[in-house]
Design brief:
Blueprint lengths: L1 H35 L3 E9 L4 E6 L10 E7 L13 E9 L2 E9 L3
Pfam families: CusF_Ec
Protein name: RND transporter
Keywords: Signal
Amino acid sequence: MRPMLNALALGLSLTLGLPAWADMQHARHVAAADHSSTLAEGLVKKVDKTQGKLTLKHGPLANLEMPGMTMVFRVQDANWLDQVKPGDNIRFLADRVNGVFTVTTLEIVKP
């Protein structure tokens, strides 16, 4: 009788506990997705079409836990290099792609 009670208790605890655990995991996942999609402000300093890179002076990059600085990024879409020029203000999202800092989203800020 004791093993049957243990099995019943385990089944009941899983039935009652899993939905709450799943809700907590979903909330964490949504918060992480929102946090990583925040666009940073940047100023284009240099465009290097032959290397597929932009030099950007940028504010903090929350998803990379990086303070503001000037650095070089690869771009996910080489066509973006034809759309920006030094002095342009942009909003962008960068991430590590195959270990390389890469701009994955880019918006030009219109004056």
